[in-house]
Every structure is written in C-alpha cells, then in structure tokens.
Sequence to fold (348 residues):
Amino acid sequence: MNFKSLSQPFNVLLLVPTGINAAIGGYAGDALPVARAIANIADNVITHPNVLNGASLYWSMPNVLYVEGYAIDRMARGDWGLRPVRSNRIGVIFDRGMEPDLELRHRQAIAAAQATLGLNITDILVTDQPLIVELRSGESGATWGTIANLDSLLRAAEKLIRVSQVEAIAVVARFPDDSDSEALQNYRQGKGVDALAGAEAVISHAIVREFAIPCAHAPALQPLPIDPSVSPRAAAEELGYTFLPCVLVGLSRAPRIITSPDLFKSDDFTADSIDAIVTPYSACGGAGLLALNHLTHVQTIFVKENQTALNVTPEMLGLKGIQVENYWEAIGALTAMKAGINPQSLRS
Fold:
C-alpha cells in the first residue's frame, strides 16, 4: 500500500450520492453522524451538501469541506482545486414561482441566520420567471428532475456574481406539493426515496458547472400535515417552514473553487490530496470515485450496509479497495490507514 508521510494531513472523501435511496444519507442529514465520526479521525473531510444538510439542523465542523457534487467530480479528475476560506459572501436566489407567504418565511430564515449566526448574506434576487420544477423517478428508485426555465436561474446567478460579487449561492426553488402521494408517505415513514433530491442536484450542478462557484439548494414547500408516525430519519424536515438554515451554514465556509491547475497553491485540496474514499458498495458509478480509484495513493472503502437503489458494485467496474460491512468497520480501517498500518493486518 502507498502511504504518505505521517506528518501530512490525512484527507478523506466521504461520498453518499443523492437521490438513490441510500439507507444512510438518503434522508435529511441522517449521514451527519458518519461525517462527524470520520471528522474526528481525519484531518479533513470533503463531502457534499446532502450528507451535511439537515433542514433546520446542522453541525458545523471546521475540518469538513462542504462541496457540491459536480465540483467534487472536477476536483477528483484533477481539473479543479478547493481552497479553504474563512467565510463567504452568500447570495440567495428565490424562485418567482413561490407564494408570498413562502417567500416571507425564507426571508425571515435569512434574517435569522444574519442576526443569530452572523452569516454574511449580501443580496437576494428573485428569478425573472418561475423556474417550474418537475420531479421524475425511474424503475430503480433513483430520482431526478427538470427545470423548465433554467436560463432564468442562470441569469440570476450571473447577476449575483457580477453585480453583488457573491462568493457562494443558495437557491430556493418552489417544488411541487404532493402531500397525498404514496412516495412521500413512504419517505416520511423512513422507507422511501427522497423525491426532491435528483431535481435539487440538477439546480446546483447547473450553477457550479456554469460559474464554478459553491452552490446548494433548499426546496420551498408548503408545510405538511402533522403525522405522529414520522420516522426519525425524516423528522428533520418536519421542524419548520424552510430547509434553508443548513444550506446557509454550509455555504458560509464552502471552499473556493480554483479552476486552473496553474493557480493551485500548496494548501489547496486537489486529487493528489485525497488519501481515502468512503462510499456505498452498491453506488460505485460516480465520476469522482472512478477518477480517483485508480490512483495508487488513494484507498477506497466500500460500505455494504449502506444499501442504495442502484446495483453498481466495485466488481462490475473493476475497482480496487476494501469492502467493509458498516461504517463502524470503515472508521476502523481509516484509523489504521492514518496510522500507516495496512488495515488487513488487523484481521486474523
């Protein structure tokens, strides 16, 4: 095995792809305990917003980098670097399709984040057209979506960057209410896929791809009727009128994206910085994982217990790494790697 010097930081990429019904990480912030545990082993953890977003709940960790999935993929391919920041100027985009009461609730959430958390939220723009989000799902159970007026979203983002000079963007799009659907009821009971996640990824990917700026999304929905049987895994989304607080906290310190390798600095996070990847065993088709797995300095840990709606295994793609049953074992393997010990030597 190829290990760095013990004096160098030990950096872990924690992957739980969104919209694939992951047993851990398929709900609102239910992978946060995994991220917290790994952050106490690793010097730095890079992970994506859906791992850390828990609606009104969040857990700020100075050594965890909040990075949108498209940016992770470009970093893994060696195209982009990630530069830690002390804070970001955040701009917020509201969907013109939001009702006045929903817009007011989100404006109040922003005011609360400024007054209570001291976040630097510099401007709010409303799109010039309703975005019109439509949700889709496939036979596998994975979800995605379409945005009819994506160009309106990109115009708003461009204005925030050019005029307000924001350094990160939060998007609040009006999503369809479907309180009576079987899929939503299953999700609230902790046994269904997040129908919103795939469309959310489309929104954030579009802005990051176009402008190379940190971005995350919070859906705008009318509150659901109270249900005493809601699963604890889905309960974070039942606590308020908005999912925006965790997004604003994450974006406040999301790393800056450096788009040219010629501009990389020694303390930027790049493909060469990653020591280990932790990913679900059945969701191995992501571009970031595929780009990093063949590098000799990167060790991949495949977690079987985190089952997903996909069936893309390391054997199917010829990927190398360590297969473990659960995140407890993954944390043990990471501890050995950080110590410069072959994890296999801890077994009989």
